[in-house]
Design brief:
The protein is built from 2 helices and 2 strands. By secondary structure, it is of the alpha+beta class. The chain has one domain. The chain has a two-stranded antiparallel sheet with strand order 1-2. A hairpin with a 6-residue loop joins strand 1 and strand 2. It is rod-shaped.
Length: 88
Amino acid sequence: MRKKLLLIALALALASAGVWLGMGANRGWTKTSVPKKTVDEVTGIESVNYERRFQPGLELLGAAMLAAGLLASASFLCGKPKPNQHHQ
């Protein structure tokens, strides 16, 4: 049980870091829309339009790492497996 919890905690930490990095590694709060600058071809005026896109922030990464840490800590609460005792 102890090893399973540690493996789940490691998988959660690696997966959440991978998703966070893969979706843009936003070092701020989570965003559901991001600004995108566009330039009008005729007038040359620059404007900002918002594109609907999910970018997880540090708070989601932190929550996932906290959950992984809690799972890893819980694994130490499980007792070590006792050696098999053969009664003869």
